[in-house]
Amino acid sequence: MSSTRRDLFHWVDYLLFTLSLASTLIVGIVIAIKDRWTSESSEDYLMAGRKMNWFLVAQSVFASATSSTLIIGLSAEFYYMGVVFIWASIGLMLAAAFTAIFTVPKFFRMRFKVTSAYEYLEYRFNVQVRMLVGFIYVIFTILFMSVVLYVPSLVLSQVTGLDIRVSICIGAIVCLIYTSLGGMKAVIWVDNIQVVIIIIGLITVLIKGMMDAGGFDKAWSIYQFGKRTAWDE
């Protein structure tokens, strides 16, 4: 790899990247050790004991939905298509609101506790429906996670010169370790850490982009010049 590509990452970037990976591993290990002394039930492992704070859970859902495909891919779509692509985002927000208001409360009001939507399908219909939908989701997840791992690994390899296969392995191994050790509780806490990183990163990029463009007015004029301000095209 050329030195120019490696120089894109400063030592501070390497430090922050290492700390973000280390923090996820530490959270998983600490929770695994703590829960081993308090409880070993499957409900604690898979459902975090159903005792997590609602705000932490909401942040975790947000982080899970805001994957690399959304952060990187959505930015590219907005650049290519313009603000008209915001209608897709509005649709996602409406779907999330509908789920939060009507679907999720139904699970809590059920006389029997379920751990997944697939278990509910078995109660509502039969085990064949549960297995079919579960199989479809497994296939979808395999394909989806391939993209989710590939996209940030591609970016990391571009700015560090690291082989993309090594980048993919690093991300996959870290996720497997903290998830398998700490269970759902570790996933929720790590997701909350990632939400903070995402928000800080987006705000930083926004401010830096505006400064490099010469201010908001200049950036918006460039956006208009590229014909990306139409809402109905």
UniProtKB/TrEMBL annotation:
A single cellular component GO annotation: plasma membrane
Gene Ontology BP annotations: sodium ion transport
Keywords of the record: Cell membrane, Ion transport, Membrane, Sodium, Sodium transport, Transmembrane, Transmembrane helix, Transport
Domain of life of the organism encoding this protein: Eukaryota
Keyword presence, Transmembrane: yes
One Pfam family this sequence matches: SSF
Compartments, as annotated in UniProt: Cell membrane
Bilayer-spanning residue ranges: 14-33, 54-72, 78-108, 129-152, 164-181, 193-211
GO molecular function, one term: symporter activity
Membrane-topology descriptor: Multi-pass membrane protein
Family assignment from sequence similarity: Belongs to the sodium:solute symporter (SSF) (TC 2.A.21) family.
Name of the protein described by the UniProt record: Sodium:solute symporter family protein
Organism of provenance: Paralvinella palmiformis
